[in-house]
Amino acid sequence: MPVQPKRTRLYSAMLIALLFVLAAWSQPSAAAVQPVKIHVHYDTGWGNSLTIRGSAAPLSWTTGTAMTWTSGNVWVWEAPSTLQSFEFKLLINDTKWSTGSNYKVTTTSPRSIHVYPFFGAAQGRMASIANFFSPQLNNYRNIILYLPPSYSENAAKRYPVMYMHDGQNLFNAQTAFGGVEWQVDETLNRLIGQGTVRETIVVGIYNTANRMSEYTPSVDPQYGGGNANAYLDFIQQTLKPYINANYRTLTATQDTMMMGSSLGGLLSCYAGWTRNTVYGGVGCMSSSFWWDGEEFTRTVEAHQGKKGGRFYMDAGGNNDGATQTARFRDAMLADGYTSGSDLMHVYDPSGSHNESSWARRLPVPLEFLLPVRLEIRTQ
């Protein structure tokens, strides 16, 4: 075999080295193929174990894969690095399935995932606080709470909180206006069982004889009012700290929401606009945007740029302020909100200004403000 000239041998060696470098660059980086590690926070009780089933190998839907117990009642399973997108569900002793929909992992999901399942019925429970005092308003009111289905079963879990006005209308026909309730508990039980919304704590705040004043942000020439900021101070400075101290809540802005109807809808939008660092989402049903010559809408129209947070608003076709609601929606769009993303507007042609219409539409704002994908989160 002829001997290559020295220069030719040098060029060949450099070419081979370059090819090795290019090959290394073409391989996925270690960060790009980090395996997904699933942490399940659940106390199975002595002698029981957790398994995981899923949509892609090495998981299957027919036979469970054992998870590893660690301290603190945390069960762990690490997927191979090749498994980046899949669905999974959990079982106790590979026989009893967790309640709700499948968990979904995508390539953009966190690599360390923490989930808080439950295995019982999708049935929340009620609690109440009588004569809760407001130093900001110098009055008392009752508070009624909905605690989600897993609250008693999974002590490791914390929950977002939805503050709702007109609390006596939310859960009980005997205390509701006209004997018609919103059916908040029944609706949440159904949606949680279907896996279409996150579990959440609902804090229903009863109204008082001062409802019109407490729910309105400005003074109307005909009706007066304008004490909304003091009422919102009561929630933020007194009620919210009490709820956070006595119940297992998530306290971040994205986990704190508010919802109401009529003047309560106006108030909720006002809170989302002026206190966007407190409330990450608001539901404004049949809102009284007409108040004080649409003063709040004109304020939003004069503003430039988004305030943050997610806004749901709706109105019915039967004398329900649809025109004023559409004007407020347009003001939000002009400020940079995006329809279907951080803003949802619903027009209900058959809707009226009453509890039965709000109960019928309630699943829509709940699914918008409490999307189930947020059940998977980093810790």
UniProtKB/TrEMBL annotation:
What Pfam families does the entry give?
Esterase (PF00756)
Would I find Zinc among this entry's keywords? no
Q: What are its E.C. numbers?
A: 3.2.1.1
- SUPFAM superfamilies named in the record: alpha/beta-Hydrolases, Starch-binding domain-like
GO biological process assignments: carbohydrate metabolic process
**Which PANTHER family does the UniProt entry name for this protein?**
ENTEROCHELIN ESTERASE-RELATED, FERRI-BACILLIBACTIN ESTERASE BESA
Write down what this protein is called: alpha-amylase
